[in-house]
Design brief:
- By secondary structure, the chain is α/β, with parallel strands linked by helices.
- It is 23% helix and 30% strand.
- A nine-stranded mixed sheet has the order 17-16-18-19-26-25-24-21-22, with helices on both faces. Strands 6-3-7-8-34 form a five-stranded parallel sheet, sandwiched between helices.
- β4 and β5 form a beta hairpin.
- α4 runs antiparallel to α5.
- The radius of gyration is 43 Å and the shape is elongated.
Length: 667
């Protein structure tokens, strides 16, 4: 047994008062003269013995009454688990309130977030005012990274709103543990108030045994939800005036099948398509839509379905732009090259000779064709290497004149590309096309078994060594490459084994030549991402260089300025800290010219509303909301132990009653 106020035990010294009263009776006896007391002597002796016993009992009752009263004011108790409750009063309490999108659901008490906020405040009320509190949410805000008193904690809880952020269980516990490191010597208690969504609260790591962790589950009425999970286009590039297929993945996370739910597709606010979605419970379905862009401007699109009450994943925002006017730089161009790029007005062919090369045009070119260059000075080699390293595409066509073949091979070796062997004269044909390479991907709907591929009469055998990273795009029937693709830096080099001359092959007159040449400028170019997820920083590369120092990313909800990065061949910005889903416009530093468009969507991790199964271990507890009253009693027990002061107060009262009864008892 311990005492909350042991200093009050000094009052036990008051026990000496009844003892003194007992030893030194203040009552004086009056003498009465009797003629003969021999008949009273026996009675007197008997009464004196009884009185002495009575006085001792009264003394004991008085002493016990005083002692019990003193002990009651000293607040005796039996400690909980033999822990000193005075140390228990020095507590650090961290309460995580889940404010992710799944907490926008409803139950009988209202919105889950509001229920969770009320439960967090209820839990805080269980503890003393002098305890230290920390509020944590999915935002991990700076104002939540410190301990506060109970009053400030309640205010912080009231300020919580639904957030687009979502942290998993291990991130939450790690953040709570980090905060507890600043609370040395305190009893550490963590609460996680959440719907315990499976995607967020599975894969729980081992918890520090020094931290008492309590999961408080807020259950929704139902777990039904329809989500637009993702969208993508089939082609690597969106081309103007060309039908583009858009695929949309819809997921039904509920227990009921959905039938004919309308999916709406809008571009720049104008409806461009609608589809009815039917999907069985706990499955997904992919819908195909089609659209076409008539220009190369930026367009903002939106996909939407109608689904309540969880609506954060009912819309998907997209940014669309068709690619146009791609520059192709040809060094020593010929009629075959000029004719093929004259077919499509989206290409601009720039001609240079090997004696007059404009290196400033390299960065603006989607493709550089090195056609039968007999002499390659050091400056040309360095600029071409830089262009490849920055992500450019080079088509290397050998010269029919093999005088400088050794110099060519030295340069190719520096680029980790195949080198040329001596000219070989042989009638040979192409037998295989790599349909998985970007230059031929989706070009043919079906390849005939006996396809008539290009034929060669002369070629340079391409020598492949172990250090070359690449593969054959087209292969001859002797298993040697006709066209070989190798990687250098961020770019790719396509090396041909023949010049574009009819004396060497019929490639320029073959049907394969046109798609091959037109697709080459697109190999290392993809449509900019249709959208990005909030919370993940990324680099946005502009279509062309800009002299702006600042770019504004804005929509009708927010506007953020980002510094331009001009350290690479293209201007770019790193975008982060976007708070709201939607379509955003990139404006120049004067907010007059549009430089781009980008779309942000919330992460779909919260769409699956399934509840996790928490495997409670040592120093862990799973509490339902209706169990908090029982939990409060346990906290009181942990704080104060088993209280005995009421029993001592009752005992003091009983001893006083005994004393009064003894005083009235005449002996």
């Amino acid at each position: 047994m311990l005492f909350a106020y042991p200093s009050f035990l000094f009052a036990l010294s008051a026990l000496i008062i009844p003892i003194i009263i007992h030893l030194f009776q203040l009552r004086r006896y009056k003498k009465v003269v009797f003629s003969d007391i021999r008949f009273l002597k026996q009675i007197t002796e008997q009464n004196q013995k009884q009185r002495n016993i009575k006085d001792w009992i009264i003394l004991a009752a008085r002493c016990l009454a005083i002692a019990c009263l003193v002990l009651a004011f000293a607040k005796p108790f039996i400690p909980f688990n033999k822990i000193n409750p005075i140390a228990n009063k020095d507590k650090a309490i961290s309460i995580f309130v889940d404010n992710s999108f799944s907490m926008s659901q409803q139950n009988n008490e209202g919105q889950l977030l509001e229920v969770a906020k009320n439960k967090a405040k209820e839990i805080a009320s269980f503890y003393h005012d002098n305890d230290n509190f920390q509020l944590l949410s999915n935002d991990f805000e700076g104002k939540h990274q410190q301990q506060v008193n109970k009053k400030d904690f309640m205010q912080l809880v009231d300020e919580l709103t639904i957030s687009n952020q979502s942290k998993n269980i291990n991130q939450i516990i790690a953040k709570q543990k980090q905060q507890f490191e600043n609370s040395a010597g305190s009893n550490k208690i963590a609460y996680i108030v959440s719907d315990l969504q499976q995607n967020q609260f599975e894969h729980l790591n081992e918890i520090d045994s020094s931290i008492q962790t309590n999961f408080v589950q807020i259950k929704p009425n139902q777990n039904n939800n329809i989500s637009i999970d993702s969208a993508w286009v089939e082609q690597p590039l969106i081309l103007p005036n060309t039908p583009t297929n858009l695929f949309v993945k819809i997921s039904n996370y509920g227990k009921l099948d959905i039938t004919d739910v309308p999916l709406t597709f809008k571009i720049d606010g104008v409806q461009k398509g609608i589809a009815n979605v039917s999907c069985k419970a706990n499955t997904n379905h992919t819908i195909q839509l089609q659209f076409s862009l008539n220009d190369v401007q930026y367009h903002q699109a939106e996909l939407s379905v109608l689904d309540n009450p969880v609506i954060f994943d009912d819309k998907l925002f997209l940014s669309l732009k068709a690619f146009g006017n791609k520059n192709v730089l040809a060094i020593n161009s010929n009629s075959s090259i000029q004719n093929v790029f004259a077919i499509d007005k989206n290409y601009t062919l720039i001609n240079n000779t090997e004696k007059a090369i404009d290196y400033s045009q390299f960065n603006q070119a989607s493709l550089i064709i090195v056609n039968e260059v007999s002499n390659m000075p050091t400056g040309f080699q360095n600029e071409l290497q830089k262009y490849l390293n920055d992500g450019g595409i080079v088509l290397f066509i050998p010269s029919s004149n093999a005088v400088n073949l050794a110099q060519t091979n030295t340069f190719l070796q520096q680029l980790n590309a195949p080198q040329y062997g001596p000219k070989t004269t042989q009638n040979i044909k192409v037998t295989r096309i790599n349909m998985f390479d970007d230059v031929f991907k989706n070009v043919f709907s079906k390849i005939p078994e006996q396809a008539n591929w290009p034929a060669l009469t002369n070629f340079y055998p391409l020598q492949i060594t172990s250090n070359i990273k690449g593969y054959a795009v087209a292969t001859l029937n002797n298993d040697m490459p006709f066209i070989f693709k190798s990687k250098y830096g961020k770019g790719y080099m396509y090396t041909m084994s023949t010049p574009l001359q009819s004396e060497w092959s019929n490639f320029t007159s073959h049907a394969l030549f046109v798609p091959f040449m037109l697709r080459l400028p697109l190999v290392n170019k993809q449509s900019a991402n249709l959208y990005y997820n909030i919370g993940k920083p990324f680099t946005y590369v502009f279509d062309k260089n800009t002299n702006n120092k600042v770019v504004y990313v804005k929509n009708n909800k927010e506007e953020i300025a980002f510094d331009i990065n001009n350290n690479t061949s293209h201007s770019s910005i790193t975008i982060d800290n976007i708070k709201h889903a939607g379509n955003y416009t990139l404006m120049d530093q004067n907010k007059k010219e549009q430089l781009g468009s980008v779309s942000f969507n919330t992460n779909r991790n919260e769409s699956d509303l399934s509840i996790a199964s928490i495997d409670t271990k040592n120093n862990m507890a799973l509490l339902q909301t209706n169990e908090l009253l029982k939990h409060q009693k346990q906290i009181d027990l942990a704080y104060n132990g088993t209280q005995l002061w009421r029993w001592f107060l009752l005992a003091a009262f009983l001893f006083i009653v005994i004393e009064l009864l003894l005083l009235k008892w005449k002996v």
